[in-house]
């Protein structure tokens, strides 16, 4: 049985574009369930027949961001055999696993079996880069789906964490009239110091009709039916929060509110440069 240094399993185009970078650095790589992309001829033919084959033949398993969704390895294509149980069955002591937003129960399972587990999103440099690519992708989605300019628009950013800060600053740089909404007064003070308007979360319902763009970064359903009813009919909601997102999508559809749940934006709009950062992270951890 041939052995490989790494198995790329599932993920979006970021995972797929890791392949040429790893091959250039001399690693033996096999893939399963990765997103289809156009690669150079020397990158073809490196695909396993099953997830078990890829995992059992590799010292290191690299998945996507997120690694797991709804009990399956997150995959850029509808591939059979991506069930989490198959990964559990194939992994052995001393292997290493990389992925993003790794559930705590999976990390604990790995620790109990002496399997090293690395979460891309717990690395500050990678997380900041991911926030930049996410913010730029969110703005592109807004431009594609709304018939007005960003410049001069009344834009609301819900949440002022890593993604919210980057997004608000980029919107302001494009000339938008940006309001940041948070329950944290310290976060709002920071946004205000950068020249943005601010709004406490408790006051959101009274003001929400003022905005033509609403960007949600908070991973909790804040925009429920009562909020949606008060929005402008021409509003565009760009929700970049992880599952389940921040919008009651059933109510939004019923009310005719244009709300988009935009997941994996770095993989959609910046996969090549994101892949290079992921490769550097993996190699650095392997050489420790």
- Classification by helices and strands: alpha/beta
Instruction: Please give the largest β-sheet.
Output: 6 strands, parallel
Distance between the termini: 28 Å
Which value, in Å, is the CA radius of gyration? 21 Å
Architecture of the largest domain, CATH level 2?
Answer: 3-Layer(aba) Sandwich
Low-confidence spans: none
CATH superfamily of the largest domain: NAD(P)-binding Rossmann-like Domain
List keywords for this structure.
five-stranded parallel beta sheet, Rossmann fold, elongated, six-stranded parallel beta sheet, 13 strands, 288 residues, alpha/beta, 2 domains, 13 helices
Question: Could you please describe the fold and organization of this structure?
Answer:
- There is one protein chain.
- This protein is an alpha/beta fold and 288 residues long.
- The chain folds into two domains: 4-122, NAD(P)-binding Rossmann-like Domain (Rossmann fold), CATH 3.40.50.720; 127-267, NAD(P)-binding Rossmann-like Domain (Rossmann fold).
- 40% of the residues lie in helices and 19% in strands.
- The chain contains 13 helices and 13 strands.
- The protein has helices at 13-16, 18-24, 51-56, 84-90, 104-112, 124-145, 162-173, 185-193, 204-207, 225-230, 249-255, 265-269, 271-286, and strands at 4-9, 29-32, 58-62, 68-69, 72-73, 96-99, 116-119, 154-158, 177-182, 197-200, 213-216, 236-239, 258-261.
- The strands form three sheets. It has a six-stranded parallel beta sheet with strand order 10-9-8-11-12-13.
- Strand 4 (68-69) and strand 5 (72-73) form a beta hairpin.
- Helix 6 (124-145) crosses helix 7 (162-173) and helix 6 packs antiparallel against helix 13.
- The radius of gyration is 21 Å and the shape is elongated.
- The model has no long low-confidence stretch (mean pLDDT 92).
């Amino acid at each position: 049985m041939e052995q490989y240094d790494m198995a790329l399993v599932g993920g979006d185009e970021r995972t797929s574009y890791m392949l040429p970078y790893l091959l250039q650095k001399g690693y033996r790589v096999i893939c399963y369930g990765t997103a289809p992309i156009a690669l150079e001829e020397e990158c073809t033919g490196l695909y396993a027949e099953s997830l078990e084959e890829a995992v059992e033949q590799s010292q290191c398993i690299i998945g996507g961001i997120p690694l797991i969704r709804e009990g399956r390895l997150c995959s850029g294509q509808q591939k059979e055999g991506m069930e989490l149980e198959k990964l559990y069955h194939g992994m052995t002591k001393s292997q290493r696993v990389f992925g993003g937003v790794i559930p705590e129960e999976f990390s604990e399972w790995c620790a109990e079996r002496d399997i090293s587990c690395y979460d891309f999103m717990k690395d500050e440099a990678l997380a900041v880069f991911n926030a930049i690519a996410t913010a730029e992708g969110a703005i592109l989605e807004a431009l594609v789906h709304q018939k007005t300019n960003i410049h001069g628009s009344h834009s609301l950013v819900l949440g002022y964490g890593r993604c919210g800060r980057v997004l608000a600053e980029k919107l302001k740089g494009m000339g938008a009239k940006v309001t940041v909404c948070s329950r944290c007064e310290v976060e709002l003070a920071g946004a205000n110091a950068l020249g943005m308007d601010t709004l406490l979360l408790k006051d959101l319902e009274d003001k929400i009709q003022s905005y033509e763009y609403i960007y949600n970064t908070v991973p909790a359903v804040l925009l429920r039916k009562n909020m949606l009813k008060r929005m402008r009919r021409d509003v565009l909601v760009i929700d970049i929060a992880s599952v389940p997102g921040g919008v009651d999508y059933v109510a939004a559809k019923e009310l005719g509110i244009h709300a988009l749940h935009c997941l994996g934006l770095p993989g959609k709009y910046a996969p090549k440069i994101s892949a290079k950062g992921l490769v550097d992270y993996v190699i650095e951890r392997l050489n420790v």
